[in-house]
Specification:
- The chain has 132 residues and is α+β, with helices and mostly antiparallel strands.
- It has a single domain, classed as Sufe protein. Chain: A (Alpha-Beta Complex), CATH 3.90.1010.10.
- It is 45% helix and 19% strand.
- The protein is built from six helices and three strands.
- Strands 1-2-3 form a three-stranded antiparallel β-sheet, with helices on one face.
- A hairpin with a 7-residue loop joins strand 2 and strand 3.
- It starts with a helix and ends with a helix.
Length: 132
């Protein structure tokens, strides 16, 4: 993917996030953070909270997902991109997404520190399932 396009895609999803907000009475909810990624707009680090509605069918499918948060461009843009991909996807498939999935989604290789930023919404989703 063209680097200019990737920068524009991430900037767009960061400033105009898709699926931003919260669901009323969600089936799953969790908030997580990455205190190692600090900046002027997020002095306590990156934060992402997800709320999710899943279907009652077998296997369950993500029907709706919303996120809120603050942090670096990568953490917020990836949360937006991930929530778009989650809708309509079986829950067990989302759980199996890995760093390769995230790198394909954002169009670039991620160093270990950048992966921590990019995976926040996915980590919150997995933790919400564990708490259910």
């Amino acid at each position: 993917m063209d680097k200019t396009f990737i920068r524009e895609l991430l900037a767009d999803h960061s400033t105009h996030p898709r699926n931003y907000g919260t669901l009323t009475d969600p089936d799953l909810a969790h908030e997580t953070s990455n205190p190692q990624c600090v900046g002027p707009t997020h002095p306590a680090g990156d934060e992402v909270a997800v709320t999710v509605d899943v279907s009652e069918e077998t296997p369950p499918v993500v029907e709706a997902v919303r996120f809120t948060g603050r942090g670096c461009t990568l953490s917020q843009a990836t949360a937006s991109l991930l929530t778009e991909e989650m809708i309509g996807t079986p829950v067990d498939e989302v759980v199996d997404w890995d760093s390769e999935t995230l790198e394909e989604l954002v169009g670039m290789d991620l160093t270990p520190s950048r992966l921590k930023c990019a995976e926040l919404a996915l980590v919150a989703f997995r933790q919400a399932l564990e708490e259910q």
